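P.,

For your records, the input lines for the assembly:
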Amino acid sequence: METFDFIEMKVPAKAEYVGVVRLSISGIANRMGFSYEDIEDLKVAVSEAITNAVTHAYRENENGEITLGFGVYEDRLEVMVADHGGSFNLNEVKADIGPYKDDSSIDNLRAGGFGLHLINALMDKVEINNNSGVVVLMTKYRDGIEVAFDEDRVSTK
Amino acid sequence: MEISINVKEENEKVVINVSGEIDVFTAPQLKEKIIPLVSAENAEVIVDFKDVNYMDSTGLGVLINAYKATKVNNSHIKIINLQDRVYRIFTITGLDEVMDINPVMRGGIK
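Structure tokens returned:
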């Protein structure tokens, strides 16, 4: 079985925390050796998913939480964004997720403009599950792994 | 995570200098400034994005609303000096084809 590090984070479903999550994803992706361009892509994609959850919480007048999960693999980063406060199990969510299709609960992402379009364009793989709340699972693969490893080794010494 | 917006009137034009990050938290501030300016009849509004280092779809939403307002009020909005990463958001969504946008070009002025 493939091993990975898992980072879980919960933030209030409020607009002011979207920037905080951007800093977090930037730190994780930087640690993994992603390029500057890829880190910027990740920041936008993750912000779009959180913005959707925040807007949903506002509309429903909820004081909710957003749960984020970062799966750090050798060759890729998987990011999960769930618009509910409950913890989730990475493998369970992955087993229960399908390709994106039209549905009212993700309406907002589209009505809000180009959110989902940007996520799809900027990430390598995007899946959405909306059985209990909306969970967005997105994956970005790392390019130039060898180079990144060499740099990493130098910088950590 | 902060944004600052400065409005200057130059001759017949209004220049809006934006700096910082435009996201779901800061976009309402931009909207508040920009919509009244583009809603003035025949207004010529230039938005300088030189110091905008992050923008997502919430910022695009504000600019789309502003663009729509120009159509109603016979005004014009132009966005200038976009950083590469911000310009990319426009090209991915195809908005660079719709709006008057002048990005920073490498190795010279477009």
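Two observations worth noting. DSSP finds six helices and five strands in chain A. Residues 5-156 of chain A form a domain with the Heat Shock Protein 90 fold (CATH 3.30.565.10).

Regards
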